[in-house]
Amino acid sequence: MKILILLIMAFNFLAIQNVYAQNKSKFQKIKWISFKKAVFSNNKVKKPFFLEFYAPYCDYCIQMEKKVFYRGKVIKIINKYFYPVKINIEGNKTVKFFNGKHYSKKLLSIKLNVMGTPTAIFYSSGLKKIFTLPGYWNEDDFVLVARWIAKKKYKIESLRKYYKEIK
User: Fold this and answer.
1) 3-12, 30-39, 59-68 — which is least confidently predicted?
2) What span, in angstroms and rounded, lies between the C-alpha atoms of 96 and 30?
3) How many CB atoms lie within 10 A of CB 73?
4) Which residue range forms the structural domain that includes residue 54?
5) Of 1, 70, 156, 161, which is least packed with CB atoms within 10 Å of its CB?
6) Is residue 51 assigned to a domain?
7) Where is the signal peptide (predicted)?
8) Has residue 3 been placed in a domain?
9) Residues 154, 141 contacting (CB under 8 angstroms)
10) In angstroms, rounded to a whole number, what is the distance separating the alpha carbons of residues 18 and 20?
11) Phi and psi of 58, rounded to 5°?
12) 97: burial class by Cβ within 10 Å (0-12, 13-18, 19+)?
């Protein structure tokens, strides 16, 4: 009887492990790319840019990562419609910005008026700033803004008007 119970427990354990492995392989995440690659890719296929400014010690950045950037709706819209670039404001590496000048990531965040983290800035494929999202945004509100930009609604109506139409 003990052997039978042990066999059943072992079988259940292996079955759970198998399901977990399958789900893990299907797990999606935002495909963050370097700023350089985003600019290069934009020369081939025009898409807006999504710049996410963060700091490794920032609690709200960590919450955005866990509660927003790992959600299916967010992952799908960001990967499909944007070039996502994650920028550590504490980083000393330099990036070549749209204007052709090189900036440290810290200096770039100052230049773009990033006053705190997290801050998301959306740029058009034509390299014009569309919208800035300062601070923590929940999944639904973040998706609303991302769709407003992805569908190019920002060209014809305010976010407030778009929000009222959707809700």
Assistant:
1) 3-12
2) 22
3) 14
4) 30-166
5) 1
6) yes
7) 1-21
8) no
9) no
10) 5
11) -80, 115
12) middle
Residue 101 lies in a domain: yes
Dihedral over Cα of 58, 70, 28, 49: its sign: negative
- CATH code of the domain containing 136: 3.40.30.10
* Beta-carbon contacts of residue 76 (< 8 Å; ≥ 6 apart): 28
* Beta strands 83-88; 49-54: pairing state: parallel
Report the domain count for the chain: 1
Strands, E assignment, 16-157: 49-54, 83-88, 94-96, 102-104, 119-123, 129-134
Separation between Cα atoms, residue 146 and residue 82, nearest integer Å: 9
Indicate whether 143 belongs to any domain: yes
pLDDT in tens, 48-105: 999 999 999 999 999 999 999 999 999 999 999 999 999 999 988 898 888 889 999 9
Burial class (CB in 10 A: 0-12, 13-18, 19+), 2: exposed
